[in-house]
């Protein structure tokens, strides 16, 4: 190996965010372990989730490295292309997607099902980061804010049309976090939030579908006669977590999961399985790991001087935090039942690969952070 | 763009995580118990299996007087036979009406569809925003169709919703021998009962409980239903145990019967009552269950009377419990616990079926011949070898299998003869049969008694009082003659000499005045001793004080229990009345003693106790303790008898039958080698009419006189006849039955 190559390698290694990769790997390992428990069938046999998740995890790792190698400013310059591609896939899924439980969210490619809205979150982050960073101080004006708003609103509406209320609502905190981090005026943000609140009643009447209303209602009145599907799932999940107690019932020794009482235990309600198997100790450790991940990402963001990179990482972190809060909150009966997954743990290719891609981009930002900020030639 | 804002965002995210952790702690630690129980209840199911109650057998150990017999119920799973029922609740939500109204709507639709034969019926309209409700309804039943109109959703109902039920009713009705309309009305009523319940979990439990179409169905019906069950959804045969009395008229008072637990008993036994799902689980969560646990099923009957009640603990088995783990689809995945039901113990009585029947028949014949309209009779036959009670009869009785039938029950309740009284264990005035005990008591030389050769001059009445008289003029009488002719004056005069103490002491020697048979719950009766009137008066005074305090306590309460207060006042009045009566009568006079000596007045003993006196003579002082259960150990009571007195008593009792008060040819006892004593207790006169009240007639004795094997006592309460005439024939019939059975003498 040449001397120069060694120097480059050493430089790259020193810049590479090893902690980020380490935490991601740890979470993926936990995912594979937990999914084995979550795939127990009542008769003792296993669903093949663990093996498949292993494949997805390898793919996710590849994507992570791939994304970390992309020089993100180049990606930013093509943000509009990525954005339009993302919108096109959202449009296509509305027309061609497979209808599952009354909404079109997936492309069924036979072997895998792809959920474009998962990817769209990251596309939105890339686009917003690029646009907001390029506009610089304009974000402090209504004009700049509106531009960001429109960019977020279009995919938001597309996803609402699927309909997928949960995913579409995650666009709000993501966009909000980026705009906030970019330095938008609190007054402006406050006014926007006020408007959003004021429009809620109209949205309830004109936009929300019946089953979405049911879910919200069942969340608000979980024990009444309105024993609807959402409340059933939440109840079972809470029972699973409570059943775990302090130390858990032991790996693969839960009852709610293996006997089939806890629905969607490998995807949306995987936190219930963790709570039941590993108890307060295990679940809290997992939350701590996520907290550490957020801190690592926050550190990358803080150390990056390039606003675009910084916003990119903020966006990725916002996605992570939002999904985490909504999914874990849902498993413990704090938030309504939505289709949001637990990042890196839930079974499912789209969400895993998309999340790893996001963290890869964050790694890319970390790698490029020493590069001096070069203002655009104007 | 500042690092501060990023730090703020990171902090915000960490705060969110902290909030989640708090909730996590809340669920896993603070609500752990509750949620764990829910999880366990979701996965565990308990099935309870009935145990067989023990048999009650005759002394031969084979003939059953009570047994558990498997019977078959025809049951119907309502949810399976009437799918339209699952529409009631969602329909009530969709239409925003009460469940009862939704049910009525469905029923009206059923009638209309049946009447018109239409393809479909317009059931109701829903506003558009309740589309989701409509969809849920349509998912429940294929017969329900919702059509999305421009303004509203229209619900249509096809006949399919009721087809299953109509068919099932049409097929079931002839099998059960009922009309289809009857059956439908019955099912409707059952459904109404469920929907009246406001609690959802209880409604679900009620739905799961099958409806009993016919309890204890005949073999014919069961066979017919089983043959056709495959084409009638939801119908099944369920086997269970039912108590059955193969000889329902034999010793009903002694055998007793069962009854369902009262609410009070359910509260008392709540800790060990199981009703399948919930309670068994509650027990199992808390502790490890072993076979030693004394469980009861919620609908398991308690012994209510007689042996069924007295030996309930032995007869009752312990139900078995099976606890399984089920998955979400209700499939059994694991068996956690499988306790076999433990059948109850069989109980062998000392009763002889043949002799018991003969005794009952003889009592009935005597009552029909000599009884007044309120008369009852009782009889007891005791085996002298081991004290086993061969017959313990009370007349009138009842049919153990049928007495609960409403009309029969009302007739029994209103019968002035009080058929439910177990007279064989109740106390009566023993009349002259008491003289046998007093023959020993008055001639107990060790305790200041008279010599056995003591005689008395009988002039038909006592010189000092007109009321104390004899049935005849007996001249100078010795003990033998006094017994033979039942001379009152002999005993009056002897009592005047000796007093009451000896009588009380001799009664105590035999244990009279106390329950005789271990585990029978017979009445002790009352044998007065010296000073008994003063004691009785003191008891009334104590009772008055008790009830006065009680009333004061009740009235001091803020809200006195009106019922308890009224009851206390009634008792107080009762005690005050009697205390006022006894206040003038606190010391027994010599007239009282005379009365007691001939078994009248305040002395009360049961037929079993009177038979004990006969046994004392027959065994010459080695008296077996009466037993009703074969598992009661055989015990003897030793009483030292004066040989001279004993010889005279024996002679006297023999002569009662040969030439005395029970020697009439018509009685027929003279043909048998029997010794006995008659008794006729008077009960004074009715103060209003001045008419003499009917007597209590007795005959007691032993057989054979030469080498006694059995002792017996028979009593007829309320007769105008005398002891020998009324009860002598009973003894003859019973002894003939005994002799015929034994094949001797």
Features:
heterodimer; A: 378 residues; mainly alpha; 3-stranded antiparallel beta sheet; 14 helices; 3 strands; B: 745 residues; alpha+beta; 5-stranded mixed beta sheet; 5-stranded antiparallel beta sheet; 27 helices; 44% helix; elongated
Largest interface: A-B, 52 and 43 residues
Q: What fraction, in percent, of the residue positions of chain B are helical? A: 40-55%
Distance between the termini of chain A: 42 Å
Percent helix of chain A, as a range, is 55-70%
Q: Please compute the radius of gyration of chain A using only Cα atoms.
A: 21 Å
Low-pLDDT stretches of chain A = 222-228
Low-confidence stretches of chain B: 286-291
Can you tell me about this structure?
The complex is a heterodimer of chains A (378) and B (745). By secondary structure, chain A is mainly α. Chain A has 14 helices and three strands. Chain A has helices at 3-15, 18-38, 49-69, 72-77, 79-96, 116-135, 142-161, 165-182, 186-206, 210-220, 229-244, 270-303, 307-331, 349-368; strands at 98-100, 103-108, 113-114. Chain A has a three-stranded antiparallel sheet, with helices on one face. In chain A, strand 1 and strand 2 (103-108) form a beta hairpin. The longest helix of chain A is centred in the last third of the chain and has 34 residues, at 270-303. The relative contact order of chain A is 0.16. Mean pLDDT of chain A is 84; it is low at 222-228. Chain B is an alpha+beta fold and 745 residues long. In chain B, strands 2, 3, 7, 8 and 15 form a five-stranded mixed sheet that branches. A five-stranded antiparallel sheet of chain B has the order 17-16-26-25-24, with helices on both faces. Chain B has a three-stranded antiparallel sheet with strand order 1-13-14. In chain B, strand 5 (144-148) and strand 6 form a beta hairpin. In chain B, helix 4 crosses helix 5 (99-116), helix 18 (434-442) packs across helix 20 (488-498) and helix 22 (532-556) runs antiparallel to helix 23 (562-583). The longest helix of chain B is centred in the first third of the chain and has 28 residues, at 3-30. The N and C termini of chain B lie far apart (126 Å). The model of chain B is unreliable at 286-291 (pLDDT under 50). Chains A and B meet through helix 8, helix 10, helix 11, helix 12 and helix 13 of A and helix 1 and helix 2 of B.
